[in-house]
Amino acid sequence: MIANKATTVSADKTVAEIQKMLASVNATSMMIDYDQGRPDAVSFKIVRNDRPISFRLPSNWQGLLAAMKKDRTVPRRLCNED
């Protein structure tokens, strides 16, 4: 079972919330990768102990959608690419 798999929050709003959180911890750069107009990964850099640390967090929305479609407890209206 995948926790927190269904949401009605748009991808754009989620991206904005992530950017706000990263800014609040003084991220020095942020980048959103897109695939066919949809957010696909978040990359960012944070400086700790005077050393920049880079991160890239890819999404796996296709795999999550497949799991949601198999899970009959997920309302069908939520089983879509959005």
Look at the helices and sheets and give the structural class.
Answer: alpha+beta
User: What percent strand?
Assistant: 25-35%
How many β-strand runs? 3
Helix content: 25-40%
Mean pLDDT, to the nearest integer, reads 88
Sum up the overall morphology in one term.
elongated
Report how far apart the termini are. Answer: 20 Å
Query: How many H/I helical runs?
Result: 2
Could you give the order of strands across the largest sheet? Answer: 1-2-3
> Which value, in Å, is the CA radius of gyration?
15 Å
Can you describe this structure?
The two termini are 20 Å apart. The chain contains 2 helices and 3 strands; from the N terminus they run H-E-E-E-H. By secondary structure, it is an alpha+beta fold. The mean pLDDT is 88. The radius of gyration is 15 Å and the shape is elongated. Strand 1 (29-35) and strand 2 (38-48) form a beta hairpin. A 3-stranded antiparallel sheet has the order 1-2-3, covered by helices on one side. 29% of the residues lie in helices and 32% in strands.
Annotate the secondary structure layout:
Blueprint: H1 11-24, E1 29-35, E2 38-48, E3 51-58, H2 61-70
Antiparallel strand pairs: 1-2, 2-3
